[in-house]
Amino acid sequence: MTELASTQDIYGDHRPAMEAVLDRLVSRVVSLRASMKQEMGLDPIEHILSRFKSDASMRDKLDRKGLPQTTEAAITQVYDALGVRIVCGFLNDVYVIRDHLIADPEFEVVEEKDYIRHAKPNGYRSFHMIMRSSRGYYAEVQLRTISMDTWAALEHHLQYKGPHTGNQRLIVQELKRCADELASTDVSMQTLRDAIMGEGPALRAHVPDDYVSRD
């Protein structure tokens, strides 16, 4: 397929259909949020963010991946043109929502990466899903707690405020320490919620005992 000129939309005629898929996915999460809130008496989601990767960002990603600047490559070889981030109050809610999403007949889960059970070396934690709609469009869903989202936002600010002037090892160590402390807080807050609601140790069904210290 011929590469598109920089003045042409990389998504071409697919943009409206992709926007509809993103809207449907967000609506699914909003509906799930409402039903869980009614059932539990608590709102399981702090906030929901969605984004459609811009033409410029997609072109940049295609270049970085060594892919051609074509509509086909943008919609079939890059899986995060559409993105949804779901920030939950508690750890268990992350996995409950994940379980509901994989049961949605309109979407197929093609990949999952559990950075909660298996945190990245720098301490990053989140649950990532690549979902494919029945129309063949891909979307990335990220599920995380408030603590994980806070850490990721602060880490982003640190990484993009210019080059480090030294102490790189100290910076890495401190970021990891902060991430582990927030992970410990997540476990404690889940335990408190379970105690308040009279629930058993439901967290253990999802998160291993050594969750906080895992790399």
Kindly summarize this structure in a few lines.
The chain has 215 residues and is an alpha+beta fold.
Question: Which features would summarize this protein structure in a list?
Answer:
single chain; 215 residues; alpha+beta; Beta Polymerase, domain 2; five-stranded mixed β-sheet; 6 helices; 5 strands
Order of helices and strands: HEHHEHEEEHH
**3D shape:** flat
**Total helix count?**
6
State the helicity in percent bands.
Answer: 40-55%
Q: In order across it, which strands form the biggest sheet?
A: 1-2-5-4-3
Low-confidence stretches: none
CATH topology (fold) name: Beta Polymerase, domain 2
| Total DSSP E strands | 5
Q: Briefly note the structural class of the backbone.
A: alpha+beta
How would a textbook summarize the main sheet? Answer: 5 strands, mixed
CATH level-4 homologous superfamily = Beta Polymerase, domain 2
* Beta-strand content: 15-25%
For the record, the count of structural domains works out to: 1
Task: Please tell me about this protein's structure.
The chain is an alpha+beta fold and 215 residues long. It has one domain: 2-Layer Sandwich (Beta Polymerase, domain 2). The chain is built from 6 helices and 5 strands. A 5-stranded mixed sheet has the order 1-2-5-4-3. β4 and β5 form a beta hairpin. α5 runs antiparallel to α6. The radius of gyration is 19 Å and the shape is flat. It starts with 14 loop residues before the first helix and ends in an 18-residue tail after the last helix. The mean pLDDT is 87.
